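Team,

Forwarding the record for the chain on the shared tracking sheet. I've put the sequence and predicted structure together so nobody has to dig through attachments.
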Amino acid sequence: MSNFNDGAAKPNRLNRADILAAALQLLDEVGLPDLSMRRLAAKLDMQPSGLYWHFENKQTLLARVSDHIVDHIIPADDPALAWQDRSLIAACALRDSLLAFRDGAEIVSSTLALGLGADAAFERIRQPLLDSGFSTELVQIATESIVFLVLGQVWHQQQRMAADSLGVTAPAAETTTSAIVAGANADALNAGIALILSGLQHPSIV
């Protein structure tokens, strides 16, 4: 995508925070597939070129959206708690943050894949594990496994919710898929995380 910072366009009176707020609102209204820079500019009553004074391209904007999503619910990290509990609290906070925004898991997953942001998704889960003295290698494996588990569960849940709202779910798959989605809840997440964390105490299986 071209960068329009060529001197022809003039900076809009809106700042980055204003644009980010509008992008989040538009995301809730139309979802990620229809969240375009042109549509966002129309919502802000400005030329699309004006957006590029603040964000180099759409992916840069989505990276900031991702940062906002993962920072939406910040867990209280109590050092007095066991490291397992601290990691679980951080993982559940990530899940709550993703679910608070339409297509949240897809946006954050894409940003992480491109290395453009949302690093807090890893850091808050990683830190309790590092504090417990596990090797950096084991901590990295466990952290990535937990983050990807949360992202996968929420992404699946949000895709199913979107399909249900559009009435496009195949009747034959309804029973099976609904059962899978029903499992993507806090209890199932906690159980999956517990399995991963228990592996840290048995490093010979890695």
